[in-house]
């Protein structure tokens, strides 16, 4: 019998050590090492075997000018939000990791995609649910929910041909957790796309530790990576997320895959956001918005109109900011509540916004504008359960806080786009024209932006403010904003 070989792995970064360590030398975390049995033997069942032996060929250095370049083959799915997040469709041979909290809708998203890819043979491998459970879910999803404007399916791919195997195109379900058995099925079926739900349930016969452990996750991902690259088949991995929001398993998982997508949102809200965290084939700041309905996920192509609540009267503490997520401008409503603290320590809490950044805004308002916020409870809420990282929301938040503090509503049809600096200055934000245009499109009457967004030198491209119907108010610091707003 082969000797068992054990090794110690850091749960946080995947660092491997021959003996147990209290502190990881790679990521400096304490108490993260766990023992795992690893046995890189030669099991009876075969691994993924490529048809060609191109791997054995050693590569030669070539001048970059001589490298043949052809566009990546991409498959456009009927889901426009998904295409956008991937940077323009699914790239052949790409390995994509989709992370998200339990119950957020990862399986729903991927099954819906698998069911709605005409002309493609999709293999959906589930280690979490039985085939009957999946069928039940598929029944709920049978009527695809096309967005306004209709869906179209275009294949730009040459390497992916729809009729390689014997079986017809469509969605195939496999409930299996052994990678070797999965590869056997793949060889028979010859799918055009593979979905793995989830990577933490898989195990490889090469390694003896339990499914979900660092070495198993790493080995299974490596095997699937090899398969994706050598066969040109796109592979989607669903990954669990730990309590602190990291994708469970080693961080190196994120380094191995081509694209990392995060599916997030508040489980109690209907909106879900698909965010690209890393993308080798496109921008990593793209965002797709979905609505979770009883019959699956529906794309939201006009987010601004949905995120703004319909009100007839102006209320204090509510502002609208023109933010930009990826390439897309979005109007987002924020609400603030400032009230006298009943306890010694004032409470500060923010939903959808970084609490540290909120504290910074409060400090600036206190120090630069003289508002006494130190003994106040402050609550911030970004509506729709969306998380905003765009700093351009600062100005709107500051205005919301003061509006609530003074109990004076912000004038109707007013919006904001500006970053707040530590000395109270309003800093310029990127792509201001796009934000102004979006505000105008949605019927806003005035927008506050930074004075520094207007170019000072005559040589730079000038923003033509006369082009807009909307009144563009340029401000240099926060006092000026409050002067204009509250008099
Ligand atoms: P699921 O895809 O199972 O989440 P994950 O794979 O990320 O754990 O989603 C489960 C949730 O989605 C569950 O709370 C029910 C809800 N849901 C709907 O609201 N509508 C639907 O059509 C489906 C299939 C699920
Ligand atoms: Mg699931």
From TrEMBL:
One of its GO terms (biological process) is recombinational repair. One of its GO terms (cellular component) is cytosol. Residues 71-241 form the RecA family profile domain. ATP binds at residues 100-107. A motif (RadA KNRFG motif) lies at residues 278-282. InterPro entries: AAA+_ATPase, DNA_repair_RadA, P-loop_NTPase, RecA_ATP-bd, Ribosomal_Su5_D2-typ_SF, Ribsml_uS5_D2-typ_fold_subgr, Rubredoxin_2. Signal peptide: none annotated. GO terms for molecular function: ATP binding; ATP-dependent DNA damage sensor activity; damaged DNA binding; hydrolase activity; zinc ion binding. Residues 377-487 are annotated as: Lon-protease-like. It comes from the Bacteria. Keywords: ATP-binding, DNA damage, DNA repair, DNA-binding, Hydrolase, Metal-binding, Nucleotide-binding, Stress response, Zinc, Zinc-finger. DNA-dependent ATPase involved in processing of recombination intermediates, plays a role in repairing DNA breaks. Stimulates the branch migration of RecA-mediated strand transfer reactions, allowing the 3' invading strand to extend heteroduplex DNA faster. Binds ssDNA in the presence of ADP but not other nucleotides, has ATPase activity that is stimulated by ssDNA and various branched DNA structures, but inhibited by SSB. Does not have RecA's homology-searching function. Plays a role in repairing double-strand DNA breaks, probably involving stabilizing or processing branched DNA or blocked replication forks. The middle region has homology to RecA with ATPase motifs including the RadA KNRFG motif, while the C-terminus is homologous to Lon protease. HAMAP family: RadA_bact (MF_01498). Belongs to the RecA family. RadA subfamily. NCBIfam families: sms. This is DNA repair protein RadA.
């Amino acid at each position: 019998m082969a000797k068992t070989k054990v090794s110690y792995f850091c749960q946080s970064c995947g660092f491997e050590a021959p003996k147990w360590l209290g502190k990881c030398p790679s990521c400096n975390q304490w108490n993260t090492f766990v023992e795992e049995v690893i046995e890189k033997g030669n099991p009876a069942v075969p691994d993924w075997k490529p048809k060609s032996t191109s791997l054995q060929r050693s590569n030669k250095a070539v001048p970059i000018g001589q490298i043949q370049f052809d566009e990546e083959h991409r498959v456009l799915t009927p889901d426009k939000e998904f295409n956008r997040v991937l940077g323009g469709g699914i790239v052949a041979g790409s390995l994509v990791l989709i992370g998200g909290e339990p119950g957020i809708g990862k399986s729903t998203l991927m099954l819906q995609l698998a069911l709605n890819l005409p002309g493609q043979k999709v293999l959906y491998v589930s280690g979490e649910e039985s085939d009957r459970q999946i069928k039940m879910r598929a029944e709920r999803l049978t009527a695809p929910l096309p967005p306004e404007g209709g869906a179209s399916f275009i294949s730009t791919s040459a390497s992916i041909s729809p009729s390689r195997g014997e079986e017809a195109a469509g969605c195939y379900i496999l409930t299996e957790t052994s990678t070797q058995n999965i590869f056997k099925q793949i060889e028979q079926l010859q799918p055009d796309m593979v979905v793995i739900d989830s990577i933490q349930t898989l195990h490889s016969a090469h390694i003896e530790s339990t499914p979900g452990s660092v070495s198993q996750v790493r080995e299974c991902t490596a095997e699937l990576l090899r398969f994706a690259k050598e066969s040109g088949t796109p592979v989607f991995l669903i990954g669990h997320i730990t309590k602190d929001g990291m994708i469970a398993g080693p961080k190196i998982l994120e380094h191995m895959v081509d694209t990392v997508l995060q599916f997030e949102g508040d489980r109690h809200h209907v909106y879900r956001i698909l965010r690209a965290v890393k993308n080798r084939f496109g921008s990593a700041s793209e965002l797709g918005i979905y609505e979770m309905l009883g019959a699956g996920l529906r794309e939201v192509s006009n987010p601004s109109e949905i995120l703004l609540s319909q009100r007839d009267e102006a209320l204090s503490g509510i502002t609208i900011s023109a933010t930009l997520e990826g390439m897309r401008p979005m109007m987002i409503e924020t609400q603030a509540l400032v009230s006298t603290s009943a306890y010694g320590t004032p409470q500060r809490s923010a939903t959808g916004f970084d609490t540290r950044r909120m504290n910074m805004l409060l400090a600036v308002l206190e120090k630069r504008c003289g508002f006494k916020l130190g003994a106040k409870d402050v609550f911030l809420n970004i509506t729709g359960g969306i998380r905003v990282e765009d700093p351009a929301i600062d100005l709107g938040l500051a205005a919301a806080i003061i509006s609530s503090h003074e109990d004076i509503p912000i004038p109707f049809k007013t919006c904001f786009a500006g970053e707040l600096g530590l000395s109270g200055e309003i800093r310029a934000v990127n792509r201001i024209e796009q934000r102004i245009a979006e505000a105008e499109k949605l019927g806003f009457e005035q927008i506050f932006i930074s004075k520094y967004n207007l170019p000072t030198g005559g040589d730079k491209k000038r923003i033509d403010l006369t082009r807009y119907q909307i009144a563009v108010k340029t401000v240099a610091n926060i006092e000026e904003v409050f002067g204009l707003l509250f008099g």
